[in-house]
């Protein structure tokens, strides 16, 4: 018997089904036929894992069946259709550790040897490259470049930015409310907290993006100087990179020589392969990132302070807590897009921690208010 419960087995099956579903969705949206085929083969691999896992689980639980794609997978697909599947791919690749773990656990329970092929999908892609000559080194470079984009990080930033604004300003508002019993000073403090926090987030994001761009531009400039001053050495480096992907030595060398015939193209390939820089990310505006961070933080921060615009006293405190509780639960639910946890688990966890922080600051504020009044 496995040490995992029935719910664990269902969750593992769901992960496999969702991965296969999303890889097929990404393949449908991919314009490059060779890359689309790689995604479809990845989907087939995940579907095969799910089928084998189901076959094993049915020996213990006769009623277990392969589930349909979850709401989470369907939501991610809708996000992909709207914003592009690079976002979804980033989230999907975060599932690989869980997928690898479930495969290893399944093999252990069946007393099957661990072959080392249970790793991440980058390893799978290298294997596909060995067996599928139609996937060129340049095409694989394009595919892996997508893996290195922000992916799900942009979605995480949106959710976590709103969460930071909500939790920090809720704590501030409740602290002042505890000291003043919800009188007019709360609105002023809440708006000040909103602006200060949003401006701080915006400045931090601007500096982060600008610094990264400047660093990458410097590295790219140095790489071009190396191509011009030492083309033979860069050709060898490029050949080694292709060989590391599983391409035979002679073919790798031929590909490197051909690539180096065009210095601009060679520069693009080397900064992606050697430096791991995706030039698409450098096109992002630091100001756009700063403004986005400001808005995301402000969206969360306005929730706890809004009731104090219309009410005061205990009425405003209660409405603020209710609205903040709803906001915390929604944010916790949104986080499940990345973690795969239950909506109720993530939502209630977010509510508990958020309200706990608010209660602590309210208590401290109340003690300070009593002390000052006394």
Mean pLDDT: 76
Distance between the termini: 66 Å
| Number of DSSP strand runs | 0
Q: What is the percent of helical residues?
A: over 70%
Number of domains: 3
Q: Encode the helix/strand succession as letters.
A: HHHHHHHHHHHHHHHHH
Shape from CA axes? flat
Largest sheet: none
Count of individual helical segments: 17
Structural class computed from helices and strand pairing: mainly alpha
Determine Rg (CA atoms, Å).
26 Å
Task: Tell me what the structure shows.
With 374 residues, the protein is an all-alpha fold. It folds into three domains: 6-147, Ferritin, CATH 1.20.1260; 153-208 and 286-373, no CATH class; 215-282, no CATH class. 81% of the residues lie in helices and 0% in strands. It has 17 helices and no strands. It has helices spanning 6-29, 33-57, 71-83, 85-93, 96-109, 121-131, 137-147, 153-180, 185-229, 231-244, 249-260, 263-273, 279-282, 286-305, 307-310, 313-339, 343-373. Helix 8 (153-180) packs parallel to helix 17 (343-373) and helix 9 (185-229) runs antiparallel to helix 14 (286-305). The longest helix has 45 residues, at 185-229. The radius of gyration is 26 Å and the shape is flat. The relative contact order is 0.11.
């Amino acid at each position: 018997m496995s040490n995992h419960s029935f719910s664990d087995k269902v969750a593992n099956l769901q992960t496999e089904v969702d991965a296969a579903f999303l890889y097929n969705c990404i393949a449908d949206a991919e314009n490059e036929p060779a890359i689309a085929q790689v995604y479809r083969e990845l989907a087939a691999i995940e579907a095969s894992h799910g089928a084998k896992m189901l076959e094993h689980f049915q020996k213990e639980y006769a009623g277990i069946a392969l589930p349909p794609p979850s709401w989470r997978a369907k939501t991610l697909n809708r996000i992909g259709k709207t914003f592009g599947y690079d976002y979804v791919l980033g989230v999907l690749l975060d599932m690989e550790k869980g997928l690898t773990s479930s495969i290893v656990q399944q093999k252990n329970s069946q007393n099957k040897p661990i072959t080392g092929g249970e790793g991440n999908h980058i390893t799978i892609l290298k294997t596909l490259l060995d067996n599928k000559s139609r996937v060129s080194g340049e095409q694989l470079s394009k595919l892996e470049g997508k893996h290195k984009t922000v992916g799900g990080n942009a979605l995480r930033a949106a959710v976590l930015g709103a969460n930071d604004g909500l939790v920090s300003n809720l704590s501030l508002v409740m602290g002042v409310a505890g000291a003043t019993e919800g009188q007019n000073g709360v609105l002023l403090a809440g708006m000040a907290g909103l602006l200060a926090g949003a401006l701080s987030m915006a400045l931090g994001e601007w500096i982060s993006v600008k610094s990264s761009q400047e660093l990458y531009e410097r590295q790219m400039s140095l790489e071009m100087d190396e191509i011009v001053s030492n083309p033979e050495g860069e050709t060898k480096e490029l050949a080694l990179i292709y060989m590391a992907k599983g391409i035979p030595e002679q073919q790798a060398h031929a590909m490197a020589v051909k690539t180096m015939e065009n210095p601009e193209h060679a520069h693009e390939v080397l900064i992606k392969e050697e430096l791991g820089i995706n030039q698409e990310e450098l096109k992002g505006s630091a100001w756009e990132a700063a403004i986005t961070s400001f808005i995301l933080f402000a969206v969360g921060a306005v929730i706890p302070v809004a009731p104090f615009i219309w009410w005061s006293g205990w009425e405003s405190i209660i409405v603020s807590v209710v609205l903040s509780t709803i906001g915390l639960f929604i944010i916790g639910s949104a986080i499940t897009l990345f973690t795969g946890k239950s909506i109720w688990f993530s939502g209630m966890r977010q509510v508990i921690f958020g309200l706990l922080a608010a209660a602590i600051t309210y208590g401290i504020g109340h003690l300070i208010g009593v002390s000052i009044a006394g």
